[in-house]
Design brief:
The complex is a heterodimer of chains A (about 350) and B (about 170).
Chain A lengths: L4 E3 L4 H9 L4 E4 L5 H7 L6 E4 L8 E3 L3 E5 L4 H6 L1 H6 L1 H8 L4 H6 L2 H5 L51 H7 L3 E6 L2 E6 L22 E8 L2 H4 L1 E6 L10 E9 L5 E9 L6 E2 L1 H7 L6 H11 L12 H17 L17
Parallel strand pairs in A: 1-3, 2-3
Antiparallel strand pairs in A: 4-5, 5-8, 6-7, 6-8, 9-10, 10-11, 11-12
Helix pairs in contact in A: 5-8, 10-11, 11-12
Chain B lengths: L1 E4 L2 E4 L8 H8 L19 E3 L2 E3 L13 E3 L1 H4 L10 H8 L9 H16 L18 H7 L10 H11 L3
Parallel strand pairs in B: 1-5
Antiparallel strand pairs in B: 1-2, 3-4, 3-5
Classes of the chains: A alpha+beta (about 350), B alpha+beta (about 170).
Chain lengths: ~350, ~170
């Protein structure tokens, strides 16, 4: 680990100013990802500005929904009664992530800014355009099971690892950001960027901008949300693909409103807007869901290592909607105890 | 900086790069938390930090000035009284120790997990997010998934936690 200095400012504005004025400075939140990167040499800041003790750790009910402070721990947020009833998909996404210990440490804002688990990004002995711009991409010809299939570029095929971010993207969350010029609000879908020629740039935040809160609008749709995560083992692993879903039906059993976002497929949480549009107004049976998934994947690029993600996305999306609807037409899978059935 | 470790205050001067795990082991001389993977993947460095189970390998010591830490060694009563924490005793009863390397982390994680479940925190396998938590074997396995054991003490650990949960 390289030598570095440490500061713990008393206010968010002081923290912003401390990082803003030093290109080598980084915010330290829960540290579950950053401290690992300091050890691995993936991240080499000269200065850490600890924001984890700033009093941005409350969950507040607002007129529009709920406002979550950036320092709220993942475990606390997942267990928060208001989240469990009003945004179960967010709760489930958090509970699907990491381990009990890490959820006690990881924070809301830090979770959104965690970095890819692409093995080449984390291995400093290999070329990686994201870690070292211009050095090349080892994942293109290497171990590729976790690679992106949507929105990737020749420079980078890494996926975003956050489960929380996928649920927040589906449910139209807004990120509150403090910069040197004051506060601004960034819709979740605009927070993360696609790699293009600059995979080292991962968000639309500028250096020194601090996420202070996440706001979730209260909607009937959010109350009927869930999260399905597929991984190589039953627990404590990153997603191969994941699906955040929410759906309401009209009186005829057709989709009145729907929200879908995918994880494990792109450089950012992927809002599946085409799939949503395809399903709106239709009865959500298996053929309709499969067609919607295919529509979303029209411009996807699958390789030999990622071909499995196509049927997995179809299955996981079907599973998510089936859970919410207590089974699909012609398919009852016994998961009717889940949120949507109540 | 000051760390209160197993009930005793320790005044330490640490390099900013020192992890909480290294501060505990190398500076404060408390070797109860173990260095396994050192990357947050195995859970052997778990302690109770301000009452909650926490990894110490992914934490920089400087960020935890003033923290209260209880390691597996501090869970037991004074050595001369010989009283083990009920979870520690249950690990012995159910042969959950085996090689013992992961055990301090497993014990701390189990104590933290029982507290979390006791206040109704749901898990990934909880079917109804708003219902009371029933600590089934599936729940125990999921909640303990951050602690790995290479020699396979899982069956004994499951039994120990089941007993500690009153099942």
């Amino acid at each position: 680990m390289r030598p570095l200095t440490y500061a713990a400012p008393a206010t968010a504005a002081e923290a912003v100013s401390a990082v803003r004025g030093d290109p080598q400075a980084r915010f330290l939140g829960g540290g579950t990802n950053l401290v690992d990167h300091l050890k691995l040499g993936v991240s080499t800041p000269g200065r850490l500005v600890d924001i984890s003790r700033l009093p941005l750790d409350t969950v507040e009910q607002t007129e529009a929904g709920v406002r979550i402070g950036t320092n709220v721990r993942n475990s606390d947020l997942a267990a928060y009664p208001l989240l469990r009833s009003g945004w179960p998909g967010v709760s489930r996404a958090l509970l699907a992530g990491a381990s009990g210990q890490i959820r006690n440490q990881a924070t809301t804002g830090g979770n959104l800014l965690q970095r890819t688990r692409c093995v080449y990004f984390q291995d400093v002995t290999t070329p990686c355009n994201k870690r070292e711009p211009g050095s090349g991409c080892s994942a293109l010809e290497g171990y590729g099971r976790y690679n992106a299939v949507l929105g990737a570029s020749e420079a980078c095929v890494a996926t975003h690892p956050s489960d929380l971010a996928v649920a927040l993207t589906a449910l139209d969350a807004v990120v509150v950001v403090l910069g040197s010029d004051g506060e601004r609000r960034v819709p979740m879908v605009e927070l993360h960027t696609l790699p293009g020629h600059h995979p080292e740039i991962e968000t639309t935040l500028s250096h020194g901008e601090l996420i202070t809160a996440v706001e979730l609008p209260a909607t009937p749709l959010a109350r009927r949300s869930t999260y399905v995560k597929t991984r190589d083992r039953a627990s404590y692993a990153f997603a191969l693909v994941s699906v955040a879903a929410a759906v309401t039906l009209d009186d005829d059993g057709a989709v009145a409103d729907i929200a879908l976002a995918w994880g494990g497929v792109a450089h950012k949480p992927w809002r599946a807007a085409r799939a949503e549009a395809t399903l709106r107004g239709r009865r959500p049976d298996e053929p309709a869901i499969a067609a919607a998934v295919e529509k979303e994947l029209r411009e996807a690029a699958f390789g030999p290592h990622t071909a499995y993600k196509r049927p997995l996305l179809r299955g996981a999306t079907t599973e998510a909607l089936s859970r919410l609807l207590g089974g699909l037409d012609g398919k009852s899978d016994g998961t009717s105890e889940q949120e949507g059935a109540r | 900086m000051t760390l209160r470790i197993d009930g005793t205050d320790h005044e330490l001067t640490v390099d900013t790069r020192t992890t909480l795990l290294d501060a505990l082991r190398e500076r404060a001389g408390n070797t109860s938390p173990k260095k396994g993977c050192d990357h947050g993947q195995c859970g052997s460095c778990t302690v109770l930090l301000d009452g909650r189970r926490h990894l110490t390998c992914l934490a920089l010591a400087v960020a935890y000035d003033g923290a209260e830490i209880v390691t597996a060694a501090g869970l037991a009563g004074p050595a001369d009284e010989g009283d083990l924490h009920p979870v520690q005793q249950a690990f012995i009863t159910h042969d959950g120790f085996q090689c013992g390397y992961c055990t301090p982390g497993q014990v701390c994680s189990a104590v933290g997990m029982l507290e979390e479940a006791g206040r109704g925190a749901p898990s990934h396998v909880t079917a109804d997010l708003e219902a009371d938590v029933d600590l089934t074997d599936e729940e125990i396995r999921e909640r303990m998934s951050g602690n790995l054991c290479r020699c396979g003490a899982y069956a004994g650990i499951l039994g120990a936690i089941r007993e500690s949960a009153g099942r």
